Amino acid sequence: MSKYSFLVPLSIAAAIAIPATTFAQSTSTHQMMHRNFMHTHPVMAAKRATKKGIPTWTVKVTAVSGSTVTATAKNVVYTIDDSSATTTRRYGGKMMAADIQVNDQLEVRGTLNGTSIAATWIQDNSLQAKNGTFVGVVKSIDATNYSLSFQSRARGMQTVTWTSTTTVKKNGQPAQASDIVVGSTLRATGVWDRTNHNLTASNIDIIVKMGMINVSGSVSAINGSSLTVMAHNGKTYTVDASKARVSQVGTKGATLSNIMVGNMVQVHGTHAATSMDIMAGMVRDMTKASAVAGSATSTQ
After folding, report:
1. What is the pTM of this model?
2. The pLDDT of residue 296 is above 80
């Protein structure tokens, strides 16, 4: 036997192995391309998901009209009926279908018919799981459309919108949306859309920095617990004395009922720098009760 004869079987085996390897690589590449196509093409991906029993589409909203949402994915335009869908925010937070906005990123499950989807479940990934709270300064107001531009401290410029059901307060006290002005500092809470940078507010609190004030003057009008005081500095203040401690020269246990128009008073309380309203902590009537009684008697 030739010393090279043992090489013949090896050569034959190599000749067989090389095409087999090439075929395996070719098959693997083909399978990868097919798999990528199935994953990336929206229609094929939907069919693939349907086989698993959970058809899911990831889409971008282009229009919203009632319960009909128009959205796109990979250049395919879908019409989505959300009237029977369970809707959630990112990470499963509660929401309503009406919260969906143009440009929002959705995950949709349901039944596909052509390019129409009867949705059974929608997750809006543009809406945060929990209500957002922002503090910042009002830059502009569009009262007609119930919205304002808002420079927040943490998230830059945001658009805040409100409705008739939005609760508005000023320093924790009931207020109106009309009390909001350019330059106001707000704390707004509601549904935050991180894609569109807007907040649909459920609560707005107008934050007014209060300072101490002391005023002396004469009472020109009384309306319940509200006093109008003409101060010695020439300004007229409206004093809320509902929570004030009241005292009167020469009288023990004085109350607001002891104060009369024309009396000289000292008021200590808090107010906003640009406001003429005072929340009184103390009101001292400097007019003696006997003098008031005498004055009242002399006018009869």
Report:
1. 0.53
2. no
